[in-house]
Specification:
The protein is of the alpha/beta class. The chain is 33% helix and 18% strand. Helix 13 links the parallel strand 16 and strand 17. Helix 8 runs parallel beside helix 9 and helix 9 crosses helix 11. The longest helix has 18 residues.
């Protein structure tokens, strides 16, 4: 039987052109690199193209100490490494694979020649956005068999591209979730037949005022550690998941903080989720707590009350440190007279409002007693700016990060890694109120930590649903 003839070079070339057709060519806008410098390595087997205007805009943005300037410098360093290791023929594309990014098998193309393009007359020539669109049109004509796609964080740029008949996409790699409705809430309602399906071979015992249930059943696989489960019927049941695997789970009943005997600095929980929150905040085994909720759900008040209780009463923490994002993030807080704390005061209106509520709860001491309590609290509550957090370590502190939805994942990592032994970190915010450019509900640092920390034995999360500010605020939230 004759041996099969080996494939000729022509066949190999045909295979290569087929591969080129299968892979896409992404033209990156400058804002993608300014948002995530590692985006160069995030397109796996597909090729990327950088127009010359992108390099010029990176050069213009690299000066300064802002997050954007840092990202511009990092993107330039990555490009320098890629181009330095490449062969002399840049026109053929430079391989992007490296030891750190092994999944990246595509190539980088730099615009090395002027691409003659016919843009509509109403588009202003010389403008960077229009020049990039011209490159996309030029690349489409050069590679008619390939999908050429513009990637931009700028919504108007994408609309303009689609109006010209070009394919354009957002940069999705930074998004933790496509749909924030799927974000972990930390709370799970139990079905009506829960006990019928999970009570076989169940063990229960009491210890330190709590009842423990060792259960077995199909729902156990859906639980996360430190998730709250509840069942509201004739005999309400509220518990937290301590351990779980595919078949079994260990549940523990909660401390009832809705009762006045368990009040925290004079504050009691007004609804189910607030009770869950206080169980997390008052548990010394939980090091990291995230709270999501609309305005008026009680995030700041509950967090401060639990902090004061554990700092001044039980002495678990030495002091409370409060920080929040001063939008724009990372800018100087100014060369104005005053200390760091005095400069941060205008941003801390929410703290002052909640302090007033917590001080009013001390009715026994009268005005003098309240004044003394206020001074004592002031000595233990420190307000810090985010700008000076890098390099610090907090020991036995109660760290509150307010308005955390305006942090990028990188900034969130910088803050959370400040925690030393005995420190509790509480992040809270409302992902519907993001003020930072380029951040969305799906890419916020708060969404990032909620998703990454779910199921960790020393972390917990609760999404607060019900506003408790006033009947006016609740009605306004519904109808306006």
């Amino acid at each position: 039987m004759p041996l099969p003839t080996p494939p000729r070079k022509k066949t190999a070339k045909a295979a290569k052109s087929a591969k080129d057709t299968d892979t896409k060519l992404f033209v990156l806008d400058t804002n993608v690199l300014l948002h995530d410098p590692t985006s160069l390595f995030r397109f796996e087997e597909h090729d990327i193209c950088l127009p010359m205007f992108v390099l010029e805009e990176l050069d213009n943005k690299k000066k300064g100490m802002t997050e954007v300037a840092r990202n511009a410098r990092q993107a330039s360093r990555f490009l320098d490494e890629i181009v330095s290791d490449a062969p002399h023929k840049i026109e053929e594309g430079i391989a992007l694979d490296s030891a750190a990014y092994k999944n990246c098998t595509g190539r980088l193309f730099l615009q090395t020649s002027f691409i003659k393009h016919e843009l509509p007359q109403h588009l202003e020539l010389g403008k960077a956005d229009n020049a990039i669109l011209g490159v996309v049109i030029g690349m489409q004509k050069l590679h008619p068999q390939r999908a050429v796609i513009l990637v931009s964080k700028d919504i108007n740029m994408r609309i303009k591209a689609r109006a010209l008949g070009l394919e354009a996409q957002d940069y999705f790699n930074d998004k933790v979730l496509e749909d924030t409705d799927l974000l972990y809430t930390g709370v799970l309602p139990l079905p009506p037949d829960f006990w019928d399906r999970h009570s076989k071979d169940m063990k229960s015992w009491q210890k330190e005022g709590h009842t423990y249930y060792q259960i077995r059943g199909p729902l156990c696989a859906a639980f996360f550690t430190n998730q709250f489960v509840y069942k509201e019927d004739d005999t309400p049941f509220y518990a937290v998941v301590l351990e779980q695997d595919d078949q079994t789970a260990l549940l523990r009943t909660l401390t009832d903080y809705t009762h006045s005997k368990n009040n925290i600095w004079g504050i009691t929980a007004r609804n189910r989720e607030q009770n869950f929150v206080l169980n997390l905040l008052m548990n010394p085994e939980i090091d990291f707590v995230t709270l999501l909720g609309q305005a008026g759900t009680g995030k700041t008040l509950l967090t401060l009350a639990a902090g004061l209780m554990q700092t001044l009463e039980t002495k678990l923490y030495t002091e409370i440190i409060i920080t929040r994002v001063t939008v724009p993030v990372g800018e100087d807080i100014g060369f104005l007279p005053g200390t760091e704390e005095e400069k941060m005061t205008p941003w801390m209106g929410a703290l002052e409002d909640n302090m007033d509520v917590l001080n009013k709860s001390d009715e026994d001491g009268g005005d003098w007693g309240r004044a003394a309590t206020r001074d004592l609290i002031r000595s233990r509550v420190k307000v810090k700016s985010l700008n000076f957090m890098r390099g610090r370590t907090f020991l036995n502190k109660y760290l509150i990060i307010d308005e955390a939805q305006n942090l990028t994942p990188k900034q969130m990592k910088t803050l959370v890694t400040r925690a030393g032994p005995g420190t509790k970190v509480v992040c809270m915010g409302n992902i519907a109120q993001i003020d930072t450019p380029y951040l969305t509900e799906g890419s916020s640092g708060l969404t990032y930590v909620v998703d990454r920390f779910k199921g960790w034995e020393h972390g917990g999360h609760v999404t607060l649903m019900r506003g408790e500010r006033s009947r006016l605020a609740d009605h306004a939230g519904e109808v306006l």
